[in-house]
Amino acid sequence: MQRNAANPSAPYTSFVALGDSFTEGMSDSLPDGTYRGWADLLAARLAARTPGFRYANLAVRGKLIGQIVEEQSRPAAAMGADLVTLVGGLNDVLRPKCDVAQVCALLEEAVTRLAPGCRTLVLMRSPGRRGPVLERFRPRMEQLFTHIDALAARHGAVVVDLFAADALGDPRMWAEDRLHLTAEGHRRVAEAVWQSLGHPPEYDWRAPLPPPVRPGWAARRGADVRFAREHLVPWISRRLTGRSSGDGRSPKRAELLPYEGCASER
Fold it and tell me: What is the C-alpha separation between 211 and 12, in angstroms, rounded?
């Protein structure tokens, strides 16, 4: 479902993206080890339509909604971009202890700060990898999503409902860490936002994947062991020590500067 669809009659000249690892682009890896992601893909497509197009991406992996509000919303508002995307709060609601009402209040603070200064503000119902972990946190997510819808209605924002798309919940759209989308997942998110801005579809981003071929028992257990060793144990260690994967990291594009993109991003 798409709410408050934007009008593409006037091209966007600038774009600022706020958020966490989802907007930073993990795990859409480039050959040099950096991440691309849906926001870069969208920026490249917009830049192809508008000479001098400018783009900033303030997202940093691991950020909670309070950090996004404090560290990203003020600089983003000051940039005065035509288009702003804000995705946050999921890192909060997926933690064992979470005050969802406080998360919603902080998200509202960011929206109130950002909406008046941009032509289009895009919010999202974040995608989730289908499975028992997601079901455990679904009530919190639904509470957050309901609040996002209400904020969008009050502030004239666009909501892109990624959570409702079954294709983006398919485990094959998720990287080995089971937390971040693959390159194909990011490509589909970019198309979803592109369409939400009123542009004609280039393909069906909701199209289901081919029927899965279920791997054998040994392959499944091997994948579980690799996931636990390479991703789950480090994640638990960070939680126990109060560290974040984003500690000490700077945004990938901290300034609103001209962006050309490249052919592989379109």
Answer: 38
| Cβ-based neighbour number of residue 183 at 10 Å | 19
- Highest mean pLDDT pick, 7-16, 86-95, 116-125, 134-143: 116-125
Structure tokens at 190: 């970019």
Name which of 31, 88, 29 is nearest 58 in CA terms: 88
Range of the domain at 25: 2-208+217-260
Euclidean distance between CA atoms 151 and 254, whole angstroms: 26
Burial 107-121 (b: 16+ CB within 10 A, else e): bbebbebbbeebebb
Domain contains 63: yes
CB 18 within 8 A of CB 59: yes
End-to-end CA distance of the chain: 24
For 120-129, what is the mean pLDDT? 95
- Mean pLDDT in residue range 14-33: 94
Alpha helices by DSSP H, listed for the chain, are 21-24, 38-47, 65-67, 74-79, 90-93, 100-114, 132-155, 166-169, 183-196, 217-227, 233-241
pLDDT class of 263 with cuts at 50, 70, 90: very low
Please indicate, yes or no, if residue 265 is contained in any of the structural domains.
Answer: no
Which pLDDT tens digit goes with each residue over 193-249?
999 999 999 999 999 998 876 766 665 565 555 655 554 545 555 555 566 566 678
Identify whether 203 is part of a domain: yes
